[in-house]
Amino acid sequence: MSVLFAGKYPERTSALVLYGTYAKRRDPDNDYPWAPTWAERQTYADETERTWDSDADMSKMSPGADEAMSRWWAERARAAASPGAARDLILMNSQIDIRSLLPSIRVPTLVLHRRDDHDSRVEEGQYIAERIPGARFVELLGEDHLPWVDADQILDVVEEFLTGVPRAPEPDRVLATVLFTDIVGSTERAGALGDRKWRAVLDGHDRLARDHIDRFRGRQVKTMGDGVLAIFDGPGRAIRCAGALRDGVRSLGLEIRAGLHCGEVELRGDDIGGIAVHIGARVAGMAGASQVLVSSTVKDLVAGSGISFSDCGEHQLKGVPGAWKVFALEA
């Protein structure tokens, strides 16, 4: 039906994608030797009718199906058609022969076929692609005819064909506690000290930050001017690191503010991204001098740890939906 529509209405067809297909379903000849005989099709139809309440053609559609898949398939088959209707459908499809239509297709066409498909041979897909002008043929690995088995194998190729762009890999996401810190009054301090002395103070701050992050088994993602961004796999260690760093920088004559949030972050090489990072930055931006603020998510995750907080109320975080409760680490 798709081939017929594309051939008759090319102005209404942007592209044609065919999967696990065939051009002829009975009576082999020199042009199409893969078609079964009419007697073979009748035998197949009778066998399907006889086993519709058990196999329901599953052994051909997905030979490696597990018990759960087979059970679901049998239920779907019984709901979709009676045994007699399934037989009649097979016999009706046996009359299909679209070979004469193939040269008339004038739309971009992709033909996909799994190498060991038990329902139709890979040569049948190649036959179709060779006779549709400009068609692209892609041979896939596997023996399942059902397209939703290992569906990404099919969808990745279809997406690239339709968009012209290969599918981007899914980003790596991990659950992490994000820590942002920032030196309070850095501009005024730099102006008072001058560039060289301020650089020395910053170097001391950066060394101290790295030492504390390593001590609490975190990973420093990057420095950001007068602060750092780090992630931890445990919120308790992240909070203790923030408190220790807050106290440690006082020896350098500095004060910092810090903010923490826990959520999924996207790993982008050495950098990170995602909404959790934005929330952590917004929480840090609310902190005052020598203050460590955490989101309610972080507070809830360390319940029973002995870490104490004071309630700072509910706030709107810029660019983040909803209201967020924020808490301050007690010194």
Question: Explain this structure to me?
Answer:
Helices cover 40% and strands 22% of the residues. The chain has 331 residues and is an alpha/beta fold. The chain folds into 2 domains: 2-163, Rossmann fold, CATH 3.40.50.1820; 172-329, Nucleotide cyclase, GGDEF domain (Alpha-Beta Plaits, 2-Layer Sandwich). The strands form 2 sheets. Strands 4, 5, 6, 7, 8, 9, 10 and 11 form an 8-stranded mixed sheet that branches. Strand 2 (109-114), helix 6 and strand 3 (136-140) form a beta-alpha-beta unit. The model has no long low-confidence stretch (mean pLDDT 93).
Question: How would you classify the helix and strand content by structural class?
Answer: alpha/beta
**Element order: H for helix, E for strand:** HEHHHHEHEHEHHEEHEEHEHEE
Indicate the proportion of strand residues.
15-25%
Reported for the largest beta sheet, the result is: 8 strands, mixed
CATH architecture of the largest domain: 3-Layer(aba) Sandwich
- The pLDDT mean sits at 93
CATH superfamily of the largest domain: Alpha/Beta hydrolase fold, catalytic domain
Summarize the topology.
Layout lengths: L1 H7 L7 E4 L18 H13 L7 H4 L5 H14 L2 H11 L15 E6 L7 H10 L4 E5 L10 H13 L8 E12 L2 H8 L1 H21 L3 E6 L2 E6 L2 H14 L7 E13 L2 E3 L1 H12 L5 E4 H6 L7 E8 L6 E7 L2
Parallel strand pairs: 1-2, 2-3, 7-9
Antiparallel strand pairs: 4-6, 4-7, 5-6, 7-8, 9-11, 10-11
Helix pairs in contact: 2-5, 8-9, 9-10
